[in-house]
Design brief:
It is built from 10 helices and 16 strands. It has about 325 residues and is of the alpha/beta class. The strands form 5 sheets. It has an 8-stranded parallel sheet with strand order 3-6-7-10-11-12-13-16. Strands 1-2 form a two-stranded antiparallel sheet. Strand 6, helix 2 and strand 7 form a beta-alpha-beta unit. Helix 1 runs parallel beside helix 9 and helix 7 packs antiparallel against helix 10. The longest helix has 16 residues. The model has no long low-confidence stretch (mean pLDDT about 95).
Length: about 325
């Protein structure tokens, strides 16, 4: 698969990203866990560098992943490699790094610049390639103000381009009118398809950065009905209200059932189950870039190896639709 260009910019990325939420460590959002449990920063750095060595050149993080800790780890991993790596981070949700918890959302354009400055410090860089708005929804008037504030950050040399993490195409169009809008991030996986967002990114020439491509690990096949997650893991008993991949600290049985129905199709041609799920996303469009998370070198390497096999065939996609009774 050929690299793709982000919007009208001169930024190009290969067709797989590194999602850095899981390496952020503990963080709370109200009474809900927002982290993925304990982390090993040295292992995280090794995993990132393994993926970079295998051809991945895009890393995504956010200010709230571990309340800034993920950005610090990413900055450490890319030290000395900055010019060869495309980095995106997100803003819009505020957090307290000392208390390791979220503290609200932005309400003014001044807070956008402050968020950018803080992320630059944690990443140890003087520019961010792609700055993504992290609030999935807001009023249209405020979205237009945010877009203009981001254009100002481009003029200041603090960011190269921007985008929005949202599943709402009508809002995304507000950003798409901006000269330096380059990508949209949205959920896209085997069981949660957003064709309207895919259509919008294709129409506007934006990259479609696909988050939750492996349903937070559920689509890797390593979890079953006996799996239980730790209390400090957002997939556990203190999960946020929106969690649907895991229920009561266990994998969603409906997702497991549907995964079993297509397992053989996804693992054909020597793919692992995770690689098959990433290949499904690539088959959904020429501008799709799945951004799976990782915790270990093995996970990062297995995901990166999927690049060699490329997308599923049209026949395999049709078989999956029939097996899931979605034809």
């Amino acid at each position: 698969m050929k690299p793709i260009r982000l919007g009208k910019t001169d930024i190009t990325i290969n067709r797989l990203g590194l999602g850095s939420w899981a390496i952020g460590g503990p963080c709370m959002d109200g009474d809900s866990q927002m982290g993925w449990g304990d982390v090993d920063d040295d292992q995280s750095v090794r995993a990132i560098r393994r993926a970079l060595d295998m051809g991945v050149n895009y890393i995504d993080t956010a200010n709230i992943y571990g309340a800034g800790h993920s950005e610090e780890v990413v900055g450490r991993a890319i030290r000395g490699l900055r010019d060869s790596v495309v980095v995106s981070t997100k803003f819009g949700i505020l957090c307290d790094p000392a208390e390791k918890r979220t503290t609200g959302t932005i309400h003014s354009v001044e807070e956008i610049r402050a968020s950018c400055e803080a992320s630059l410090r944690r990443l140890g860089t003087d520019y961010i390639d792609l700055f993504l708005f992290h609030l999935g929804s807001c009023e249209a008037d405020f979205a237009a103000q945010v877009r203009e504030a981001l254009e100002a950050l481009v003029r200041a040399g603090m960011i190269r381009a921007y985008g929005w993490s949202t599943e709402r195409p009508e809002l995304a169009r507000i950003f798409a009118d901006g000269a330096h809008c380059a990508a949209f991030m949205h959920i896209e996986n085997l069981f949660e398809d957003y064709p309207d967002m895919l259509a919008l990114t294709a129409e506007t020439g934006m990259a479609s950065l696909c988050r939750s491509p492996l349903c937070m690990g559920l689509l890797t096949g390593k979890y079953d009905r006996s799996t239980r997650f730790a209390a400090n893991d957002l997939r556990g008993l203190n999960a946020p209200a929106w969690m649907n991949y895991f229920i009561d600290g266990r994998p969603n049985p409906d997702f497991l059932r549907r995964l079993d129905a297509v397992r053989e199709i996804l693992t054909a041609d020597g793919r692992t189950l995770a690689q098959g799920c990433l290949a499904w996303i690539w088959a959904r469009g020429e501008n799709t870039v799945p951004v799976p998370g990782f915790r270990t070198e093995r996970q990062a390497g297995d995901n990166a190896a999927a690049l060699e096999k490329g997308p599923l065939t049209d026949a395999q996609m049709a078989q999956i639709e029939a097996a899931l009774d979605r034809a």
